[in-house]
Amino acid sequence: MSSQVSRAARRVTHELHGIVVSAGLMQKTVKVRVAGQKWNKIVNKFYGDPKHYLVHDPNSSLRTGDVVAIAPGWPTSRHKRHVVKQIIAPFGEPIESRPAVPSLDEIIAERETKKAAKDERKAQRKQSEEEQRLALKKATATERESKRTAWEQLKAKSGQ
């Protein structure tokens, strides 16, 4: 089953390498600093210009100081647009004692199952709303009919 999400995720060919500067403060999220440089025209010199990215860490397996590879992905929250690809160099606790970092295929499969479950819930909700709407329409029709018969009976009484 190849969905639009999986095709888009597999199309990504570039990755960024950075250092985890904040881990454990947010659930399933780490802050990664990626090195960069900026040219200053006045001094004619490059200066360090790091960027910080909020990265989705599904199993909370990263620790502060780890060197990681991250890849751009789909929006997980307002500011999270990247996902952990692998741990290049762990800092402190060894990788074996941490939860495993899921592969790209596992992440895509999990996302697709969540999306399928959400679509199913949405269809069920839509169907129940349609049933409620039809029941309300039927109830108002019977109510109108009963009012009409009562009105006709009242008219018939007053006409005699």
From TrEMBL:
<dbReference type="InterPro" id="IPR012340">
    <property type="entry name" value="NA-bd_OB-fold"/>
</dbReference>
<keyword id="KW-0689">Ribosomal protein</keyword>
<protein>
    <submittedName>
        <fullName>Ribosomal protein S17</fullName>
    </submittedName>
</protein>
<dbReference type="Pfam" id="PF00366">
    <property type="entry name" value="Ribosomal_S17"/>
</dbReference>
<dbReference type="GO" id="GO:0003735">
    <property type="term" value="F:structural constituent of ribosome"/>
</dbReference>
<comment type="similarity">
    <text>Belongs to the universal ribosomal protein uS17 family.</text>
</comment>
<dbReference type="GO" id="GO:0006412">
    <property type="term" value="P:translation"/>
</dbReference>
<feature type="compositionally biased region" description="Basic and acidic residues">
    <location>
        <begin position="112"/>
        <end position="150"/>
    </location>
</feature>
<dbReference type="GO" id="GO:0005739">
    <property type="term" value="C:mitochondrion"/>
</dbReference>
<dbReference type="InterPro" id="IPR000266">
    <property type="entry name" value="Ribosomal_uS17"/>
</dbReference>
<feature type="region of interest" description="Disordered">
    <location>
        <begin position="112"/>
        <end position="160"/>
    </location>
</feature>
<dbReference type="GO" id="GO:0005840">
    <property type="term" value="C:ribosome"/>
</dbReference>
<keyword id="KW-0687">Ribonucleoprotein</keyword>
<dbReference type="GO" id="GO:1990904">
    <property type="term" value="C:ribonucleoprotein complex"/>
</dbReference>
